[in-house]
Design a protein that fits this description.
305 residues; alpha/beta; 11 helices; 47% helix; 13% strand; elongated
Amino acid sequence: MAALGWLTPRRRSATARSVLAGEASAEAARKSTQEAAATIAEPQFPVHGDDRAAAFFDLDNTVMQGAALFHFGRGLYKRKFFETRELARFAWQQAWFRLAGVEDPEHMQQARESALSIVKGHRVAELQSIGEEIYDEYMAERIWPGTRALAQAHLDAGQRVWLVTAAPVEIAQVIARRLGLTGALGTVAESVDGVYTGKLVGEPLHGPAKAEAVRALAAAEGLDLGRCAAYSDSHNDIPMLSLVGHPYAINPDSKLRKHARELDWRLRDYRTGRKAAKVGIPAAAGVGAVAGGTAAAIALHRRRR
């Protein structure tokens, strides 16, 4: 029988390393099966044909690099509506915004307040007409392709898509129309018979006000916010993002990134590895390249004179 021993496999005791290898292999197989099942079970998003779902996109640094308000001012500066020296105290606001990649409520508030006082007496149609031209010149090339694709996915699914921004609603509507979106929610300046009065209707659409605007629109449109999505770069928009069932942090500032990770929100960054601090800053563009919303209003004031 000893001669047949070679036909019988020898029994060897498992070493610690072989046990580890076996356990690791089994764990990898188990995880692979679970991941495959999760992938199959994950629902399609956005859901096609869901007419009670919609998407809400912040504008500045989410859909567009920089602030729309300041790009508008840049276009007016090009048209020589005001002198460079008049922009000096406003230029640093846009420079700071683009360098930091986050909103400064004080800067934006100062720009809005000055703009309101100067556009008083101008026609709404005048701003809209200028906005159409400036979109083509300065804004179109600053749309983030990745965010644009997200918005298009919602549109392709048959859902409505709105911009929600602190920028003047007239500018926001121009951008929404050019992108083929449903519409825009923005800061509303009071007008009577098509002429600006120099006052706001309520307050700037910023922070909690955005959330209230989305809530009101959802109620009017018969939307289920739990099935809606919202996208923003700023921690100031956490109230809006928290309203919906599908919140996204897009090119997020540090506070929003931290908050999104804690709550397991989806994150997308289209800045190709560069901080928002270094995106699209024209080295030799001069003061005119960083003109603010106040500068835009000054331009209209000078033109009226």
